[in-house]
Design goal:
single chain; alpha+beta; 5-stranded antiparallel sheet; 36 helices; 33 strands; about 20% strand
């Protein structure tokens, strides 16, 4: 279950983190204790919801019938299976269950519960299959069946085994039947436990069918990727991507996935296409789709939220249960291309609309400042969603006080006994259109008894539940008598959905013939043409004549059809097909996935194709540079050293003007490919002098940078020429008359050897008079000295380092424990403020493997200052007063708008925009208003710039460029200062926001201001 590993970014940091020390293990007895108090009773919970207009929400099941639900399934006979995970977060003793819920009186509300199976460890998902169900219960995928009709499983078979038993939110989960008849299970790499190693340190093994040990297997926990399998055929494969908790398909079988801070991404290129070319370096086969950031802002309405130590607040941080809605029963705006995702930490459900974007999509908010569903109840924990037979969206509510895992909690919370509060509770809700009729499937559903003809008719239903289950049952029955009717439906012009599922049903039954594929390749619906290409791919060996029909689609009007065609044609190596592939590539060359698809077919042809691309290189189109870099990386990764050497020589020969625009991407690609080699070819050392001279003297800076990258990959030999080159680099670096990018590359060149002898020289370059690229390069090179040189320097110079240099300087501490200790010392002594650390680095520090460092970091980064605590304490009474947001707006305009805006409106853009603090708890807002210096937002502290003419300027540093700083003050004045005019730069360690606002705002006005700031407009 995906419950938090929050490495997402946040604009606001530690204002709400509890001042708690880091954790060690707790005893098993404490882990299992559960409190039944707290929370809101099921019948009253409905009043806590704010739901999108046009919809209604109803309670379907609740405690005591069900508790700790994490997944569900409704089978063809109207039985609701619910997975109960009681053991989360730490109990592995086998408390997990599968409940079978029924509605005995037909009112649509479950009123009877039977334990179908028990003794499961940490079950995470369920899917109907054959006469039973598949259940994911790491390390296994189980098959459970009731053979005697008593509603209790008496068959328990391990279908697959070997998956990691890692932190529960990262384990395999949610088996899902795809359009292509494969069963997909969500899965990702095991997360290394640092505190609970004994419980969750299992990295996984080879994944295999235990009853077929010599059958297929996936090594090393499937390398952390998701898995698909077909039990009837003992088929087993990895996908090209991974997902955390949940995954979904759209109508045409495109695969979408989710992770904590990234609520929707797509597996764009499938594993078989990447597998055929080992030279192609593709580090990620997925595309993030959100156009409103990965860790997107959310708009909870929770009262008194309880967020734990490493919970990122105000953004998506626990996304799960991604669902592409295909129920066909929602209001029109929500019936097509809409995805829902649960965010249990923020107690809400988020909705997006997908829009085509090349080979992939973009996901956009449907509502700018509001969620589809949100609750004021902090215990509402939506963790899964399911489309029912009625087209309604069934929402699984885990209903716990705490959803985060203790691996990332403060120790006293772990020991408080609250980890299992709510383990006796759980709810399932039905979300439907406002005018939807009551659910009748609980009494009338009998699809399991349908004839083949009736099942075939259901393949055209608008609701995916009917289509998916009808296809599954037909494939399972494998009735030859159904084939003629299926062939008719596959050609029925009135229903594209019917044609689509009939084709894949025939394929699942091994009854699909080439004539139907050929007809489908000409279908007017682009989604069917796209699927027909996939089906043709499966039949190329026995029906090679399909190739000519595939080629006929090369000018298809739809970009995704052309993309799939390019992927599939990669399996065919003929002159005609090779020419078509090139035409497809250059037609859509601006789409990076088209480039990847084209190159996936080029194993062994990389160098020749690269020469062809260089001959038609267009410097005005950046896509050509991207393609050349990818091709060059393939050459560098696998080609013979002599081939690499020739290409390297060609790319370093000075060529003037646009004719040499391809040289930089060639060098960058070669460097990328060479870095992936396990053994570096010694033949390349002969090119060291050429690379050095290119790096230091070539007229084009990007070519210099490419040569540097190759030198970083192959290393420098210790010889006289190297020493001479180092001296040349120092001379370039110190020459202030040269462009800053040339100087920066020369400084980075010094890091090719231990730059210990250059420490004094590098220190001199890190000062505000030098261009920013020079300072950053000097800092990076100084950090290459393996001792504490860079750390001591940064601490000495911290007050005079500009914001951009400070950010890079913090990174230099993160590489070694001894440097981290110095950073923590500086935090403890107040030399560095916690706001300068930033959220991702704070998480890293508070999750250190070293227990002492981890505990110390947690104590320091969550410490609350005592300044102005008397005033803050006095104003606590404002939190209990009723606030008027209309009057609060007037308070804001009088006191705050001189420095702040709300979402770009209603004030002056001097301090931070306050449009996101609706996610802050009232105590956090109150404290920051009354004591602005206790937590200065990064980038909003005051600076003093002493100028060479004797004057000084104060303000916040609004922007930095290589050669200038821009300061802004509260009066709206903007001052741009050339770096050459700066004598000294000093941080004042204070917020630009003044203290003493309590003299202007009384307690009732504070309550009004809080009401205004916490609303979402």
């Amino acid at each position: 279950m995906k419950i938090l590993f929050p490495y997402s970014q946040s604009k606001w940091l530690m204002y709400l983190l509890v001042a708690l020390l880091g954790g060690t293990s707790i005893k098993c007895k404490q882990q299992k204790e559960a409190a039944s108090t707290g929370g809101i009773p099921p019948e009253k919970a409905l009043s806590t919801f704010e739901l999108e207009p046009g919809f209604k929400i109803e309670l379907v099941a609740a405690e005591p019938l069900v508790a700790d639900p994490v997944a569900m399934e409704i089978d063809e006979n109207g039985r609701m299976y619910v997975v109960e995970m009681h053991g989360y977060p730490l109990d592995k003793s086998g408390t997990g269950k599968i409940k079978l819920l029924t509605d005995t009186n037909g009112d649509g509300r479950m009123d009877k519960s039977t334990t179908f199976a028990e003794g499961l460890m940490l079950p995470t998902g369920i899917m109907r299959w054959k006469k039973g169900v598949l259940v994911t219960d790491p390390p296994n995928v189980l098959y459970l069946e009731d053979t005697d009709g008593d509603n209790q499983a008496d068959v328990k078979k391990t279908m697959l085994t070997g998956f990691a038993v890692s932190n529960p939110q990262h384990n395999l989960n949610n088996p899902l039947l795809g359009l292509d008849n494969w069963i997909y299970v969500g899965h990702e790499s095991a997360v290394t436990a640092k505190i609970y190693k004994e419980e969750f340190g299992d990295p996984g093994k080879d994944i295999l069918y235990p009853d077929k040990p010599k059958g297929p297997r996936l090594a090393n926990n499937a390398n952390g990727r998701s898995v698909r399998f077909r039990p009837d055929e003992y088929a087993l494969e990895t996908t090209s991507g991974d997902t955390q908790f949940g995954h979904t398909f759209d109508t045409w079988g495109r695969y979408f996935q989710v992770s904590n801070a990234n609520h929707i991404f797509q597996e764009v290129i499938a594993e078989p296409y990447l597998r055929r070319n080992p030279d192609l370096l593709v580090t990620d086969a997925t595309q993030s789709l959100s156009d409103h950031e990965n860790a997107a802002e959310v708009f909870p309405i929770t009262k008194n939220p309880e967020n734990q130590l490493l919970t990122d607040v105000g953004v998506i941080t626990s996304a799960c249960a991604l669902t592409y809605y295909q129920g066909g029963a929602f209001p029109e705006e929500f019936n097509n291309n809409v995805t829902f995702v649960a965010e249990p930490v923020s107690n809400l459900v988020h909705v997006d609309r997908l829009k085509p974007k090349g080979a992939s999509f973009a996901a956009s908010r449907l509502r700018p400042h509001k969620e589809f569903l949100a609750s004021t109840d902090a215990w509402f924990r939506p963790v899964n969603m399911y489309t029912g037979p009625d087209g309604a969206l069934y929402l699984v509510d885990y209903y716990r006080q705490i959803i985060e895992h203790p691996e990332w909690m403060a120790e006293d919370v772990v020991k408080s006994g609250a980890l299992y509060n709510g383990t006796d509770k759980g709810r399932i809700y039905r979300i439907s259109a406002q005018n939807a009729k009551p659910a009748t499937w609980t009494q009338e559903l009998n699809l399991g008894k349908a004839t083949d003809e009736q099942l075939i008719a259901k393949l055209a239903e608008p609701n995916i539940w009917w289509r998916r289950n009808a296809q599954r049952l037909l494939v399972d029955r494998n009735s030859k008598q159904a084939v003629p009717t299926l062939r008719q439906i596959a050609q029925n012009p009135t229903s594209a959905l019917g044609r689509l599922h009939a084709l894949w049903t025939l394929e699942g039954m091994h009854q699909l013939r080439p004539d139907l594929i050929i007809k489908a390749l000409q279908d007017p619906e682009q989604g069917i043409r796209e699927n027909a290409i996939k089906l043709a791919e499966l039949h190329l060996k026995e029906s090679p004549d399909l190739t000519s029909n595939l080629i006929s689609l090369q000018n298809d009007a739809n970009s995704r059809v052309r993309y799939q065609l390019l992927c599939t044609l990669g399996f065919i190596n003929t002159p005609e097909v090779n020419q078509v592939r090139q035409q497809l590539l250059f037609k859509d060359i601006n789409d990076e996935w088209v480039q990847v698809a084209a190159l996936s077919a080029l194993s062994g042809q990389n160098a020749a194709f690269l020469e062809s691309v260089l001959a038609q290189y267009k410097s005005t189109n950046p896509a050509y540079a991207s393609l050349v870099q990818r091709l060059s990386a393939m050459v560098g990764a696998r080609q013979e050293p002599e081939t690499v050497r020739r290409l390297l020589q060609k790319a370093t020969t000075p060529i003037t003007g646009e004719q040499g625009a391809w040289q930089a991407p060639v060098l960058a690609g070669l460097a990328q490919g060479l870095k992936s080699r396990k053994v570096m070819p010694t033949e390349l050392q002969t090119e060291q002098n050429v690379l050095i001279q290119t790096c230091l003297k070539h007229p084009v800076v990007s070519v210099r940078e490419g040569a540097l990258q190759i030198l970083q990959a192959i290393g420098l030999l210790a010889r006289a020429q190297t020493q001479n080159a180092m001296q040349q680099a120092r001379e370039i670096a110190s020459n202030q008359n040269l462009p800053e990018d040339q100087r920066a590359i020369a400084i980075e060149f010094l890091a090719l050897r231990n730059p210990e002898t250059d420490r004094a020289f590098l220190r001199k370059l890190i000062n505000p008079r030098e261009p920013l690229p020079v300072q950053l390069a000097a800092l990076h090179t100084l950090s290459a000295i393996p001792d504490l040189t860079v750390s001591t320097f940064v601490l000495q110079q911290w007050p005079s380092l500009s914001p951009d240099v400070r950010d890079a300087a913090i990174n230099t501490f993160m590489s070694k424990p001894e440097r981290i200790r110095l950073l923590l010392d500086a935090l403890e002594e107040g030399k560095i403020q916690t706001a300068s650390i930033g959220w991702p680095r704070s998480v890293s520090l508070m999750a250190q493997e070293d227990e002492k460092l981890r505990s110390r970091a947690r104590a320091l980064l969550t410490k609350k200052e005592d300044k102005r605590q008397e005033v803050i304490q006095e104003y606590q009474t404002a939190l209990n007063l009723g606030g008027d947001k209309v009057q609060g707006k007037a308070v804001f305009q009088r006191n705050c708008s001189v420095c702040h805006q709300i979402r770009g409106n209603q004030g002056v853009a001097f301090g931070p925009d306050l449009g996101t603090i609706h996610n802050w708890p009232p105590t956090g807002i109150l404290s920051n208003v009354l004591d602005p210096n206790q937590s200065i937002s990064d980038g909003y502290d005051m600076w003093e710039v002493a100028l060479t003419n004797g004057k000084s300027v104060q303000g916040i540093i609004a922007t930095e460029t290589p050669n200038a700083l821009t300061l802004r003050n509260a009066g709206g004045q903007v001052t741009t200062i050339a770096r050459q005019d700066i004598r000294a730069l000093k941080a004042l360690g204070m917020s630009a926001m003044p203290t003493g606002l309590e003299k202007q705002i009384n307690k009732q006005q504070m309550a009004n201001l809080l009401a205004y700031l916490r609303q979402v407009e």
